[in-house]
Design goal:
The structure holds three protein chains of three kinds. Helices cover 83% and strands 0% of the residues of chain A. Chain A is an all-alpha fold. Chain A has one domain. The longest helix of chain A has 25 residues. Chain B has a single domain, classed as Helix Hairpins (Orthogonal Bundle). Chain B is built from six helices and no strands. The longest helix of chain B is centred in the C-terminal third of the chain and has 31 residues. The radius of gyration of chain B is 21 Å and the shape is elongated. By secondary structure, chain C is mainly α. In chain C, 75% of the residues lie in helices and 2% in strands. In chain C, strands 1-4 form a two-stranded antiparallel sheet. The longest helix of chain C is centred in the last third of the chain and has 32 residues. The chains are: A mainly alpha, B mainly alpha, C mainly alpha.
């Protein structure tokens, strides 16, 4: 059951991230998808991958994107 | 349960398709890059699902475990090791792309791919 | 000494890291980079042939099925790897020599990228592990992007970002293909996968297997700059510094042949595989030469010609006989050296004139006769004029396609060679022989001595390989006999 919920969360946040007008929100939603994916890896019996995924895709990548957005512009368009 | 793997397969296909769509059709370069990271996540998810074993255990040999029971019940750890590398590679390519975007933004003042990338070909008349 | 096999990758990798860490010390960095660059071609020459298992994990014999499994990442070092790693090591040495003599203050990150690229292609050439190859394929893409972005040419950042975006669509596709192979066979070792395919453990006609071929093939097209990626590939050559471009094209050729040899060992039983390779190679030959005709920027022209030459390599491998694969690999070795010679030579002209448009150049023969003569010989070698090395490999390719029963392909190959000759001579005429335009100022501008030295070394190799091709072809033929 958990994997279905997590899958829905991942796909929804991926789509929401790409239709946001505000790029900072998109960065946060990317981190959300990454963190949910890390939980899914835990369900799939890969705790080591889950740890790496939680750190890299859940925290570092959104911070990178947010920094790039801060240095450029916040709105899409 | 085959159901788990089916759900995972759908999720990874959905992530790859969303990512490909945004990498090809969305104009904003940062969203393109976010889409590319979704492609990578989808592929990683697929490879982890290869190693998954329904009703299995985490492939870490704890003290006190029976070795033969462990060998027949643990998930296959090789794909997990590959995905670890792949996640880090994905993050580093993303960082390089964002750095290039930040440099280019200073020159063009916009994040639109149409202005930033395709326009060089118009200024160089020999580029088709 | 088999211990030297991993050192071929470790030495440039460690050098790259150390140089970027201590790039503040200018003099030390220069000497260190020079010493490491000398070592790069020497290590493969001194090393013995053999296998290296990382971590010392020897292959395991499964008593139940009677099959051998390779648990470790395996490096296999044979004559083929020796000549290609030696060639790329020599080229790296020449490029770093040119770079060190050109600038008083060297940039640590740039040297880092050059060494990183060399380490990556060396590992791709040596490895027998498909995922290990993928990792270094990604590192190579990053190094290439860095080399392009580090040049001071206009729009190099745009080109680098474009290449990177395309690459980060192409490489997950390749990873997905590797994932399918892993799901089918449970291994990432190429020898194990090939054995599983040949013993019928994998259904060769299953859609998953075909899909994995399609995905890895897509990654190969991206890595080698075959159509539809020929425009971006020639673009990154023209946006890199000339000596950087000389190294970039050797990276392209080596990554192309190392991926295609791995694909060949896995998928050779599928008839569609060879058709696909021949189709895309012919497309690359025709598109490369015809687009080269229309260029006015001579760096772009050489870039497209290099893509056209890649088609010859693919053609040899796609035909699938021992003789044709030998011819294709020999052509790959020749292309690495000849194209590097042309890039360095035209780079010397850019240095001396600050001009890349052929229409604004002319009469350079009187000012730079050494460069002119060496470039002429290099161009003739690329077009396949006897007795230079390009002639020997193209002759072998034509003979191979004739003996396979495809006279059309050999006629096409000859026509593309003639077209290459025409493109080169046309550009050469406008640059060197045509009267000098009045507004072109050539006084007081010298070609760097290091570039002439590098061209001389490459030219000697071109002529030697043209006169004694058997030195190389015999060993390559033995290697090809081993994988068929």
């Amino acid at each position: 059951m958990l994997e279905i919920v997590l899958s829905i969360v991942i796909v929804l946040s991926a789509i929401l991230a790409l239709i946001q007008k505000d790029l900072l929100k998109a960065a946060i939603l990317t981190g959300f998808a990454g963190a949910a994916l890390a939980l899914l890896f835990q369900v799939l019996l890969a705790p080591d991958v889950a740890l790496t995924q939680a750190i890299v895709e859940g925290a570092i990548v959104p911070i990178f994107i947010a920094l790039a957005v801060k240095k450029t512009q916040r709105s899409d368009g | 349960m085959a159901q788990v793997q089916l759900v995972i397969l759908f999720t990874s296909v959905a992530l790859v398709v969303i990512g490909l769509y945004s990498a090809i059709f969305i104009d904003n370069i940062i969203k393109k890059i976010i889409g590319i990271s979704f492609i990578e996540e989808g592929v990683n998810l697929f490879i982890v699902a290869i190693g998954y074993k329904a009703g299995g255990v985490v492939p870490i040999l704890m003290p006190g475990m029976d070795t033969s029971w462990f060998a027949s019940n643990a998930a296959y750890p090789l794909p997990f090791g590959l995905v670890l590398t792949s996640i880090v590679i994905g993050a580093s390519t993303l960082a390089v792309m964002l750095a290039l975007v930040m440099v280019l933004y200073r020159r063009y003042g916009t994040l639109s791919t149409k202005v930033m990338l395709a326009d060089t070909s118009k200024r160089e008349e020999y580029d088709e | 000494m088999n211990e030297l096999i991993p050192l071929m990758v470790i030495v440039p990798l460690m050098a790259a890291l150390l140089i970027s860490a201590f790039s503040k010390l200018n003099k030390v960095t220069k000497i260190f980079a020079f010493v490491v660059a000398i070592c790069l071609p020497l290590i493969p020459l001194l090393s013995n042939y053999g296998l290296h298992y990382f971590g010392g994990y020897e292959p395991i014999l499964d008593n139940v099925t009677g099959m051998i499994y390779h648990p470790a990442i395996t490096y296999s070092f044979t004559f083929l790897q020796q000549i290609f790693i030696g060639a790329v090591g020599l080229l790296t040495f020449l490029v770093i020599f040119i770079y060190l003599t050109k600038y008083k203050k060297v940039s640590g990150p740039y040297l880092f990228l050059l060494f990183l690229g060399t380490a990556a292609v060396t590992a791709m050439m040596l490895t027998d592990d498909i995922f290990h190859m993928f990792v270094f394929f990604e590192i190579l893409a990053l190094a290439q992007v860095g080399i392009v972005a580090a040049s001071s040419i206009d729009y190099s950042y745009e080109m680098a970002l474009k290449y990177m975006v395309l690459g980060s669509i192409g490489s997950p596709m390749m990873l997905l293909g590797i994932g399918f192979l892993l799901a089918l066979t449970g291994s990432v070792n190429v020898t194990d996968i090939a054995v599983a395919v040949h013993n019928g453990l994998v259904d060769a006609a299953s859609p998953v297997f075909l899909l994995s071929l399609a995905l890895i093939f897509f990654g190969w097209l991206y890595a080698s700059g075959m159509p539809p990626f020929h425009t971006i590939k020639s673009g990154i050559y023209s946006k890199a510094e000339p000596h950087g471009a000389a190294l970039l094209q050797s990276f392209t050729v080596i990554s192309m042949i190392s991926i295609v040899l791995i694909m060949f060992r896995i998928y050779a039983s599928l008839p569609i595989f060879e058709v696909l390779i021949v189709f895309f190679s012919i497309l690359a030959m025709i598109l490369g030469v015809s687009l080269a005709l229309t260029q006015t920027d001579f760096r772009r022209m050489i870039g497209f010609l290099a893509v056209g030459e890649l088609g010859f390599i693919g053609l040899g491998i796609g035909l699938g006989t021992n003789f044709s694969i030998t011819a294709g690999l020999f052509q790959a070795l020749n292309e690495i050296i000849i194209t590097a010679l042309l890039f360095i030579g035209f780079g010397a002209i850019v240095n001396a004139t600050d001009e890349v448009d052929t229409r604004k150049l002319g009469g350079l023969l009187a000012y730079h006769p050494k460069v002119a003569i060496m470039l002429l010989i290099g161009g003739l070698a690329m077009a396949g004029v006897p007795p230079l090395s390009g002639f020997q490999s193209k002759l072998m390719l034509v003979q191979a396609s004739l003996s396979c029963g495809f006279p059309e392909i050999s006629i096409l190959a000859i026509m593309v060679s003639i077209a290459t000759f025409v493109v080169f001579v046309k550009t050469y005429y406008t640059m060197f022989l045509k009267p000098k335009p009045n507004d072109l100022d050539l006084e007081g501008k010298e070609v760097p001595k290091a570039m002439i030295f590098a061209m001389g070394v490459l030219l000697i190799i071109v002529i030697l390989l043209g006169i004694f091709p058997d030195v190389v072809t015999g060993g390559i033929s033995n290697f090809v006999g081993g994988i068929l």
